[in-house]
Amino acid sequence: MTAGTTRLGIGLAAVARPAYINSGRATDLGARRSVSELRARSEAVLDAAYAAGIRYVDVARSYGRAEEFLAGWLAHHPEVDDVEIGSKWGYRYVGDWRLDVPVHEVKEHSLAAFTDQLAETAALLGPRLAVYHVHSATLDTGVLDDADLHRALAELRDRGVRIGVSTSGPAQADAVRRALEIQVDGTPLFTSVQSTWNVLEPSVGPALAEAADAGARVIVKEAVANGRLTPGTSDAPPRAVALAAEMGVPLDQLAIAAALAQPWTWCVLSGAVDPLQVASNAAATGVALPADALAELGTLAEDAVTYWSARSARAWS
Asked: Where in the numbering of this chain does the NADP-dependent oxidoreductase domain appear (predicted)?
């Protein structure tokens, strides 16, 4: 991170499309979610994030109009030249800006999908694109075994774009370790890893430590567990709520501080959807967790398969 900036990043997954799986969206966003309204909200979030010292922005082809909204914000702020942008390819948004569709995004990890989506990303972000992740890389899609695709990714790497993987699911660690093995022309292909880690689902932690030791940057996503670790939520573990109260900090700050405390973390993504949430998330960088608090948070871990099964069952709203 640049001196003077925070180790937080801002992600637009929850604010640049009308439906997502986070808790509390009816309260956070209300019913008014037109393109123009979410564009304005996204720009307000980006304004607040930049003012808070955040200099990493995470978007994806499947995050509704996230790349478009970010490109518009950058156009409105030509003075901003110190923001690093990471995007992702591998999913397409197919929700048609509705809440009630049965499918909101479709996954495809082929060379053709990469080629098409890179062109779409480049049309919006151009030379501002700094990091390009495979979206939710897993062993079963073949994306980590496709030599032709790896060569195409390496061509982008050799043009100065950092290549990475994002991971989800109970087998995240397997995907991270496989990605670290891949080299093209004698050079590691994947040097950025973005994974879900939080105090309820920390199973990928040892693999992320290995990634950091190998020289990759580690970005933590879903540190507040899709809203489960935020103030007022109905499904937060009671002990986490009590610990936050004992420390005198909001639950979101406790959760993000725990992710920041991991020695392998380069950046933790905020998924805030309004400036007040941005400010609360950013304040987590000032929360120092004592060793006994971190140890107690470690006891909250759930079985990974159970955690991901419940996450998969969350309704888009």
From this structure: 42-297
In a domain, 2, yes or no: no
- Domain residue limits at 25: 8-312
For 215-277, strand residue ranges (E) read 217-221, 267-270
| Torsion angle of C-alpha atoms 29, 7, 93, 170, degrees rounded to 10 | -100
> Has residue 317 been placed in a domain?
no
* Cα 188 to Cα 144: distance, rounded to the nearest angstrom: 13
Number of domains observed in the structure of the chain: 1
Helix 35-51 with 66-76: angle, nearest 10 deg: 60
Specify if 211 maps to a domain: yes
pLDDT for res 6: 87
Rounded distance between C-alpha atoms, residue 113 and residue 232, angstroms:
40
CB contact at 8 A, 165 and 219? no
Both ends of the chain: CA-CA distance in Å? Answer: 34
Residue type, 199: V
User: Is residue 268 a part of any domain in this protein?
Assistant: yes
Instruction: Provide the CATH number for the domain around residue 282.
Output: 3.20.20.100
pLDDT, tens digit (0-9, with 9 covering 90-100), for 207-235: 999 999 999 999 999 999 999 999 999 89
Please choose, from the candidates 191, 204, 72, 178, the residue with its C-alpha nearest in 3D space to the C-alpha of residue 128. 72
